[in-house]
Amino acid sequence: MKYNYKDLGLSNTKEMFAKANREGYAVPAFNFNNLEQMQAIVEAAAEMGSPVILQVSGGARKYINKEVVPFMAQAAVAIARSKGSDIPVALHLDHGDSLELVKDCIDYGFSSVMIDASHYDFATNVAKSKEAAEYAHQFDVSVEAELGILAGIEDEVSHDAHIFTQPEEVEEFVKATGVDSLAISIGTSHGAHKFKPGDNPTLKLDILAEVERRIPGFPIVLHGSSSVPKVYVDMIKEFGGELKDAIGIPDEQLRGAAKSAVAKINVDTDGRLAFTAGIRKVFGTNPKEFDPRKYLGPAREEMKAYYKTKMVTVFGSEGAYTKASK
After folding, report:
1. Of 94, 116, 155, 268, which one is the catalytic site residue?
2. Most buried of the four, 132, 258, 272, 285, by CB within 10 Å?
3. Measured on CA atoms in the order 302, 308, 312, 317, is the torsion positive or negative?
4. Phi and psi at residue 65, to the nearest 5°
5. What is the mean pLDDT of the chain?
6. Where do runs of H (alpha helix) occur along 24-68?
7. CA-wise closest residue to 91 among 156, 147, 25, 8
8. How far is CA 207 from CA 38, 114, 214, 259, 300, in A?
C-alpha cells in the first residue's frame, strides 16, 4: 500500500452514513475531474458545515493521473481545515468495474470504493461484491455495491434502459456480500439527457420504502441524481454551446428520499453544467481572455455556489458538522 487514507486525513463513510440516517439528511457525493472542481466541492462543503464525498470514476482517475489523486484529496482536507471546518471528507471510487481497480484505489489512499457488478446476474454480482468487500475491509475501507441498473451515460457506464431494483433481493444481497452501502435503481438516470421537457420524472418511492423495510437502517445510495438546472443549460446555449433541452430529477423528490434511508446521493452532471456555463460566460463576454485563472476561477465559483444551494434544497446536510466561518 502506497498511501493509507487515514494518513491523508480522510474518513471512510461508515459514521458519515450512520449520522446521516439518524438525522434525516444525505451525504453529498460530488464527482471531480480537475483541481478547480475539487476546490469548489470542498469549499462549498466546508462553508456549509456539510460532510462530503469526493468521487472519481476510473476515467477521471486516468485523466487526473492516479499518482496525483491522493494528494488532491489530502489538499481538500487541508482546505476544509484552513476554513476552520471539521467536516469529514471521503475519497470514493465511483463505478469501479473490476477488483483490480478497487485494489489499486485502496492502495492509493481511497477511503471508499464502489464495485459495480450490477450488469451481471445476481449470483455473479454477489460473488464479485463479496470479494471486493472482503479485501477492502482488511483496510477499513467502505464498500458500495449496486442492485438494479440505471439508464443513461456517465463516463464508461452506459445502459439503454432501467432495471429497477427488486426489493426481495436486497436482504440476501446485503447479508451475502457484507457491503457497507447499496445503490438502488428507483428512477434516477445518468448523464445530462435524462428526460425530455414535458416528461414527468418520478422516483419509485414505493421501491425505496420496501427496501428500507427489508433492510432497516442500512445506508442506501442514489446514483444519477442531477437535476439538470435550466439556468445552466440556457447559459451554455447563450454563450455558444450546443446542448439538447433536458430535465433531471426534481429537487423536492430527492430531498424526500434523503429524509429516509438514502444516506448518499451522487451528483456529477450538474457540476459539469455549472462549470461549463461559467467558462462559456467568460469567453462569451470577453473573447480575448486567455489567462486560465480568469475563466477557471469563475467556473469554480459558479459550481461552488450551486453546490452550496444543493446542500440545502436536496441533501439537507448543511450544518451537520461545525459550520466554518466564511
Report:
1. 94
2. 132
3. positive
4. 100, 120
5. 91
6. 35-48, 58-64
7. 8
8. 33, 22, 11, 15, 37
Q: Are 160 and 151 in contact (CB under 8 A)?
A: yes
CA 5, distance to chain mean position in Å, is 18
Type of residue at 224: G
pLDDT classification of 154: cutoffs 50, 70, 90: very low
- Cα–chain center distance at 281: 26
- Say whether 171 sits in a helix, a strand or coil: helix
Highest mean pLDDT (candidates 35-49, 155-169, 205-219)? 35-49
137 three-state secondary structure: helix
Query: How far, in Å, CA of 289 to CA of 294, rounded?
Result: 7
Query: Cell numbers at residue 196, please?
Result: 425530455
Q: Is residue 210 classed exposed, middle or buried when 0-12, 13-18 and 19+ CB atoms within 10 A define those classes?
A: middle
Let me know: does 87 contact 80? Beta carbons within 8 Å.
yes
What's residue 322's pLDDT?
Answer: 73
**Does pLDDT of 158 surpass 80?**
no
Distance CA 76, CA 272 (A): 19
By DSSP bridging, strand 152-154 and strand 157-159 are antiparallel
Q: Is residue 157 predicted with pLDDT exceeding 70?
A: no
Does the pTM exceed 0.70?
A: yes
Q: Specify the pLDDT at position 71.
A: 98
Phi-psi region of 209 (alpha: psi -120 to 50; beta: other; left: phi over 0): alpha
pLDDT at 123 over 70: yes
Helices (H), the chain: 14-23, 35-48, 58-64, 69-82, 99-107, 122-137, 167-177, 205-214, 230-238, 251-258, 269-285, 292-310
Cα(166)–Cα(185) distance, integer angstroms: 9
Residue 245 designated active-site: no
Residue owning grid cell 421501491: 207
pLDDT at 152: 43
Of 139, 109, 140, 175, the residue nearest 14 (C-alpha): 140
Residue 199: pLDDT band (50, 70, 90) is low
